[in-house]
Amino acid sequence: MRARPHGQAVAGSLNADLSRSLLALWRSTLSQPGHHQRYLCRVTRLSLLALQRKLDCSALADDPRFQHPGWQRPLQQRLLQLWQAWQQPLQQWLNELDIGEPERANLRWLLDQLSAASSPSNSLLNPQIIAATRQSRGANLRRGARHLLIDQLTQRPLAMPEADNQYRAGHELALSQGEVVLRQPSFELIHYAPVTKQQYSKPLLIIPPPINRYYLLDLTPATSLVQHALQQGMAVYLISWRNPNPSHCNWGLSHYVRACREALMQVLARSGSTQASLLGVCSGGILASLLAGWLQARGRAACLSALSLLITPLDARLQTDLQRLAGSATQQRLRRQVWRQGYLDERSLGSLFTWMKPEQLLWQPAVQRYALGEALPSSPVHTWSHDNTRLPAQLVEDLLDLLTRDPLSRPGSLQIDGAHIDLTRLSLPSWHLAAERDHIVPWHNALPAGRLGGDCQFTLCRGGHVQGLLCPPGQARAGYQSAPTDAQDTPESWASRSSLTEGSWWPAWTDWLARHSGDLQPAVHPLADPALGPAPGHYVHQL
């Protein structure tokens, strides 16, 4: 199979949907000429006010891009206000266009990209760039040009910081002690060493997403959810997924659910327990839910004691940035491309998430690296976020199907490994987490709202997709809302009766989990197998 150049699969696929949307926009100029003329006049009027510095820019007061005092100078103020002048009417102009909703969603995404790209902070009139150029006599621009040339030659835009090799799994990251107790073609199973004299009798199996590496959950000793669970007396096992290659193109949801089932059976056998709890994160939460549904369909759900789902998209009916990016034409082209090469490559996957948050993940780093001539900051989170993995073609196909058909909303319509999945028949208790500012899984999409049976506890924490997870006790400005949820709940009805707690959600989760984890008993240490090796294992290093 001949692979496309890295990073082009998603970008190329987007062109089809955007072309259709731009064609719809052009047709609207013929059918709604008055609408376009009216808003053009409004933009012109606002631009004249901006040139006189009479436009209100108070909405930008808290924007981190414009905190330098130089933005108060007349030239920079005019630049800011002109940028605001064309932005302010855009949403209303777009909402009143006589076009289809899919085209409107694509145009909204395109306008967001144009807004981020045209920000005055990205220009050489940025006072921070001007100050750096004066102070260094242009050395910053020379360094930036060198960075740009190197990144172009190596085909690595916004390349990882040179110092990022100071953060490595098994050295500075993923330091929890444990042993690989099972290695299969698609995963390794890690059993972590206890840190308490007693542990709960019912073990915990953590299922991370197949996207990126697992060690976000064991990032550093101070920010390790794995360590926190161990300190609370949990017997912790974790799946580390293999980075697939073209020969694994047929690994889909059924394959990954079978792998989770095999890991669960191994956990039960090694612990001697008849029950275990599952913790699934993001797309790993989908796998955990489908595993629970498969066990329920086969009459074997009694082996589960509890289910925890963190930032897991259970509801695909609500519009998200990811759905706006994945229009029908985009999906068709993406399917053809991933089957041609056998997988969705890691750079395309990384670029997809970058374009969902361009101000923070694209333009600010670009200004820092290419205009200020600075090395991008190195951090554990930055290292993890750039440690992307590939996705097998069949898994991409299956995830797109979940996104478009939303089969979880129709009990029995999704078939996994020969079983029809009906999550409403589950009776085990579940605990759910979402994050307020999550741009990948908006919190409304993580609300169970009757999709799962059993008692459901829903928690909404402060922060975004990653920051919401990395919330150890003592974290500054941490807080969360929590309340039970039922089938009739809407996001508004749940929020109206939820209670606010200041601090980390980690203790609340482990307190809940302890109630479903059996009795305390002497801790069991993992049996080391020299042939398999210690945590973090082999697959986490696999390119």
UniProtKB/TrEMBL annotation:
It comes from the Bacteria. GO terms for molecular function: acyltransferase activity. One of its GO terms (biological process) is poly-hydroxybutyrate biosynthetic process. Residues 63-228 form the Poly-beta-hydroxybutyrate polymerase N-terminal domain. SUPFAM superfamilies: alpha/beta-Hydrolases. Keywords: Acyltransferase, Transferase. InterPro entries: AB_hydrolase_fold (IPR029058), PHA/PHB_synthase (IPR051321), PhaC_N (IPR010941). This is Polyhydroxyalkanoate synthase. It comes from Halopseudomonas sabulinigri.
